[in-house]
Design a protein that fits this description.
- The protein is built from six helices and two strands, in the order H-E-E-H-H-H-H-H.
- The protein is mostly helical.
- The chain has a domain of 91 residues.
Length: 141
Amino acid sequence: MARPTIYNEEILNKTTEYINGCKDFELENKLIKVNIPTIEGLARYLDINKTTIYAWRKEKEEFSNLIETLLAEQATRLVNGGLTGSYNSTIAKVLLTKHGYRDATDSDVTSGGDKITIVLAPDLANKYIESNRTTEDNSQR
């Protein structure tokens, strides 16, 4: 038998409180402590397992919306902090992969997924065929 859920209105209030309370600490314009909202941090704040958070996210629409707010705040701060140098850019880049960002260069040489067909003019095609025959004939000797 499953344990009864502790999900209630207070969970929603505490989740909002956690998201709004996650602020970096600065002293004399120097970043001292980074405090980005995370699922793990929320789990600790609510004193529950993160698997419970994932379950509630699937089952409870209002809670799911709050988690989306948490993740949006997290991504925004990672991007901004990584770009300004406030956050370690390597760590920000790694964490942003969880948000769909990636560090890659696309190089599609097949014209958008379609195969490239090379069409030669008839006289060029004949020259190409003849040059290959000459090369083959010379190599067989």
